[in-house]
Amino acid sequence: MIEVQGSTAGNPDLDWSQVRETILMLALAVAQIEISMRDSDGSVEMLSNSFTSMVGQVKMIERTAAALPDTAENAAAKAAMIESCATISGMMHSAIVAFQFYDKLTQRLSHVTSSLGSLANLVSDARRLYNPYEWLGMQEKIKSRYTMEEERLMFEAMMAGKSVKQALAIYTDAMEKKRQKATASSGGNEEEDIELF
Description:
Largest sheet: none
Radius of gyration: 25 Å
Low-confidence stretches: none
Structural class: mainly alpha
Shape: elongated
Number of domains: 2
Number of helices: 6
Mean pLDDT: 83
Order of helices and strands: HHHHHH
Distance between the termini: 24 Å
Strand content: under 5%
């Protein structure tokens, strides 16, 4: 937990510190990210429950359509219902892939809040602030939280002195290579696997 004292920038005195002001701004960033994630969690849970219910409804419609007798009058309606069910299932698959993106986003934002908290705690502790081993330990802790190799490559690029733009290019290139490899191994099928973290 980040320990924060209030800002004295509006009324500076001899005890004023840019470190305290920096820590305060880091804590504010953490709070904003956390409240955004909390606010969106309820909406995503509602959407997830709706999709679960819709999957059940589509399966029921599909079973009902398949059970209709094969008569000339039913043939067109039966085929249309089964085709519509397939279309809806495809649309739901696309939505579930979007949920996968949201899951990755919240995981990354959680890492950011944790990293900002670690940084604020380190900067606020004068005993640790000037110790390179404390900084190295914090960096290794942050790196260990990454679940994707591409994120670790981006981290290493930043720690090696690359610009944000260069590090993002390294990440993007690694992701594109991963996507191409996955597409090639799936026989050209570009549908993404659904993988929630």
